[in-house]
Design the sequence.
């Protein structure tokens, strides 16, 4: 088209950083910082495995909006360690994965009740 302004090429987003995982009874909370380099992200893909060395190229556990930088995984089993990576994506593709983070959910059980001494 004559006179059309060329569009800038879209580039993949940078890697999310600072991924952390904390666990409770049948849940793991993830938190990360948005990428500071690369193209703007459309959202995030969250990958999970039960061994270190998560493959961020298969089917993600879930995706979340580009405005989210946290996720709660409630599809975990207590006493199993889960490893996670987060990938930002856009129309150009997936960016590099975040650092890996792990957590192990544990059952809360019933708190011990102190015994009262007879007086």
Sequence:
């Amino acid at each position: 088209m004559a006179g059309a302004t060329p569009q800038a090429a879209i580039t993949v987003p940078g890697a999310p950083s600072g991924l952390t995982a904390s666990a409770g009874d049948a849940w793991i909370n993830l938190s990360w910082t948005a990428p500071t380099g690369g193209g703007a992200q459309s959202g995030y893909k969250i990958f999970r495995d039960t061994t270190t060395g998560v493959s961020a190229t298969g089917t993600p556990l879930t995706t979340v909006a580009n405005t989210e930088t946290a996720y709660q995984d409630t599809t975990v089993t207590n006493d199993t360690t889960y490893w996670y990576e987060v990938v930002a994506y856009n129309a150009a593709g997936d960016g590099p994965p975040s650092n890996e983070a792990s957590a192990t959910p544990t059952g809360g059980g019933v708190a011990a009740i102190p015994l009262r001494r007879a007086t």
